[in-house]
Amino acid sequence: MPEQTPLQKSSLISDQEAENITRVEELAYEIKVQEVMTPNPITMTTSMKMQEVLEQFRVARISGAPIVEEGKLIGIISIEDLIRCLIKSDLESEIQNYMTRNPFTVKGDDPVVEALKVFVSTKVGRLPVVNKEGQLIGILTKGDITRGLLKALQQDYQTEEVRRYRASHLFEDIESERTSLILRYNIKAGDFTHGGEASSKIKRALSRMGASPQIARRCGIATYEAEMNLIIHTTEGGVIRVEIEPHQISIDVYDSGPGIQDVELAMKPGYSTASEKVRELGFGAGMGLVNISRCVDIMKLESVWGKGTRLRMKIFLKKEDTVGEGHAAKS
Amino acid sequence: MKLNEIVQKLNGRVLNSKVNMEIEIKGAGGADLMSDVLASIQPQAVLLTGLCNPQVVRTAMMADVLAIVLVRGKTPPAETVQLAENERIPLISTPYGMFEACGILYQAGLSCLERPVSDQDCFAN
Description:
CATH class of the largest domain in chain A: Alpha Beta
Strand order of the largest sheet of chain B: 1-5-4-3-2-6
Distance between the termini of chain A: 61 Å
Strand content of chain A: 15-25%
CATH superfamily of the largest domain in chain A: Histidine kinase-like ATPase, C-terminal domain
Number of domains of chain B: 1
CATH superfamily of chain B: HprK N-terminal domain-like
Distance between the termini of chain B: 35 Å
Largest sheet of chain A: 5 strands, antiparallel
Number of helices of chain A: 14
Structural class of chain B: alpha/beta
CATH topology of the largest domain in chain A: Heat Shock Protein 90
Number of strands of chain B: 6
Oligomer: heterodimer
Helix content of chain B: 25-40%
Radius of gyration of chain B: 14 Å
Radius of gyration of chain A: 31 Å
Order of helices and strands of chain B: HEEHEHEHEHEH
């Protein structure tokens, strides 16, 4: 088998390489063996002569084939077996004298990473793929895995590119006197587990629309603090409404109570009415509203005790920060 | 400094799997108050914190923090690890305390990415 070594090196994604390429590693868990294998491979039977194996390998340009009897996989024959046979000038012999019985197999719905593990630990060149009933459905080589992963990576890349492209040209394609995109999120009171989810989505949407990292960050921080306020302080939660326009982002956060008793005091750094539980989460230090005011260009806080609170914020976009108009419109 | 260098220096354990440890970290900040993190930490930092709840991961995302180090050998709840995994933010646990962990990284030449948050500054806007 030494003559196989260089081939293996060039076509195999080693464990260590896979670790370094994060997305590849991840895909190895996501993609199933049956998505990358070669289906319906050429099969042989135990009673065939090695001469026929040689012919089949030569004509089909393959280096191994599963041996099947009555639909059941019973062995595998590879080019190495053929070489052993040639050395002995024994081409009239039957396959069963040279084949490997009970070969390692993988299941079609196993993730690719399972197959990689077998390849790494056994050094075999190909693995027959079977279904739940043990019937042969395909064959898998390391080359198949590499090709499958590369294809998936390319698809991944294209999907995100298309998404970004579409989002960043959103406003260009629509004609009106004033176009805007409105995002709405309902926030539940006391829902600490999902605290920050809406803000993450807002931040991601802005990035996809071509907002600069600074704008996305300022918007993310301001909405996050406001979102946590809705979760911590309101009786029935509230709403975050973000209106995105090419020249500005307007954020409106409102709830139906209980309201703030002293708005001026609430704006004071360090002032907080938060409970011990909230403080344990790293919030309630009385810096939320202060942080918000740092991130936005205009901030307006109105509250009526017993009625509710409304926090309005605006971030103005300079030409270079413009969102949703694509790169062409910015230059 | 590369993230895996930081992990090595802190004797750290990476708690999630689908993350890139080769990323370049510009500097660091240490805080337990999430509002302080949001107010003061600069982008592309590693955050050292004693807080273990999912909000740490959310805060990191908002503040463009590239990785989170949990000090004092803390093991976070499963939902924190899950969120970090989903959002692909490296989560690292170190046996060192906050003071020592910060000291080790500072001595190794990692710069400070915290800016002061003074009261005066608060009223400036």
